[in-house]
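Q: Sequence in, structure out?
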Amino acid sequence: MGKVCEIQGIEPFNEVFYKDCYFNSLFSVMNYFQLDISYVLINDIFHYELLNQASGLRVRYQEIRSVNEILEEGSIRVECQLYSNNIIEDIKNAICQNIPVILAVDGFYCPNIIDIYQKKHILHTLLIVGFDDTKKIFSIIDLEVLNNLTYKKFIISYEQLIRAHRADLVVLNQEKGENTIFFYSETTGSCPLPEVRFIYLNNLRLQENIVWKGMEDLKKFIQNYKSLCYSEKSYVSKELLDCFVEVFNSKKVELYRLQRIFGTDHQLTIAYQQLQEKWKHIMTQYGLYHYSSKKQESVIFQISACLREAVQLEKKVLSKLLLYEEK
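A: Exactly. Output:
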């Protein structure tokens, strides 16, 4: 009779989508080991970057420290591997020791991701939390729809997992020297981590120059906005929409972590919520403009005014954060 084993207490993380699929798997692991995910969230400082004058405003994440270093300080040991000669047995042995595993795969071979399965090749990671040798299946936590916050518990056969992990996309990463297998276990004896708010504000102040430079790039983008809207190049309108979606998504993450750091009723959190709503309005209005068959010039001017208001709001919130002191 085949062995059945599952790590109890690991749940999907669906509060916010952070950067890429690896982090949402990691947050499930951190919650399982009772390490505050805020320590990873505050490790990135967001800033704008104007890639070119034609369009190209993007949100960048300035990483302060290695994520694995943060985990180690928080009593989570991370064992990273490039590849495995017997991935099935390695995963099963880990699960039997209550060690969750994050594995790099090609989403083309993951039947649970309904919009890309056998449709699109994309490098992806999933979290493995159990197995059933009788049925030859693994229990996993993964997405149901790519880039949507729909993490759930699924099963995947041993054969499907091997095919997904040994796909060309994953092998290419291995050839570049990038790890594709991650084992997480609990350690003891670490020192208490500093208070989250202190680390976040310190990180922000250390990157103050980069953040203010990003604000200047945002202002330049706003100055170019109208001319971009009148561009005859068909792809520019879609690039603008992608830009507004990316900025809004970054605001959702920033608001989420400020709520964790300061609480939902703090004046800084409330101010940032107003900023997020402003960017949501910009994104929604431009989306309607982009997909409309009849382009109304008045919408361009309305969004331009909203952008100017957004940059002023953002400067105010940033200044308050940089000058913040505990009373």
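The radius of gyration is 22 Å.
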